[in-house]
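As a next step, we paired sequence with structure tokens, yielding the entry below.
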Amino acid sequence: MGLFDRLFQRQGVVGIARDTIDFALESADDTHPNEYMGMLRGTPAKHLGMDQRGYVITDILVIPGTRSNPVSATVDSNMIPNDMRSLGSIHSHPNGVLRPSDEDLGTFTSGTVHVIMGAPYGRNDWRAFDQHGEYRDLPVLDVDLEDHEEFFDFTQADIDAELRRDK
């Protein structure tokens, strides 16, 4: 465990939420034949009612300005949030190969989990790797995730009130 992890008591990743990996596989299929790319974020397992330490991967952030084609995806690293919930990356290989390329290994420097999904993007068409490109176990967990739809539930009056608060 590095100094940063010890200082902030960062815990390991205990798994990925089933809804999260299902969302990622569906997104990769929708993006096919281009690569899909996102960043993994987590929620403390205790916040999900689990009796263990560590994080569960619950969110995938698609970074603004991400460009992709059938052989690569490029993310503007300045747009990637750097916080305690950032756990790694996820991307697809439209050719179906479930192992990191040399280019992938060069991007595995941030985070501890990197997921590669391969066509045809079925439930078992993905693998997790550590920052060195070594396979790692990543259990799929059936956890209840919060519904974030209320985030988009606002009116013009709510916007006006927020703008007045900022002045």
Observations:
- The chain is about 20% helix and 30% strand.
